[in-house]
Amino acid sequence: MAFTRFPVVPVGSTLERNAVWILPLTGDRKPFPLIHSEFGNLLPTFSPDCKWVAYVSIETGQREVYVTHFPDATRRYRVSTQGGTLPRWRGDGRELFYAVRNSILAVSVDEKPDLISLGTPHTIISAASYGAAAPVNYYDVTANGQRFLMMEANSPKGIVPLTLVTNWDAELKKR
Length: 175
Hints:
The protein is 6% helix and 38% strand. By secondary structure, it is mostly beta strands.
């Protein structure tokens, strides 16, 4: 989730939890549901210009990625075609990434005033291509969309030691 003037907040009952809530940090500061339905709506993320919100809904019976206009949510666009989760925006908002099982897909985004045109989803990373068979659970993308940070599930190497270096800047000054 991007840090904006409008953080997304969870609230109350099951029906309320199925909504994506917005908390304005200015004005009356009264939370309001941006996306409200009987289906689960989760993992919202603002576009870099805060005009769009990508989120996941389970209304089709599986997780799918959608985009809606902010703040009115009057138009909604389905991004994924065969499931999807964990939407992430490229830094300029011209591409949207999402995960499907063991792959990361990308969709081009062409924004015009108050509407958006989405390209055809295409696989850009297959977990099998970097040696992982497990689903893509967590990832992030750099602002330019050229590098991805991914968690590898169940490393075949077993326990991997972690070395934590404290006061490393003082050590560098000695050299």
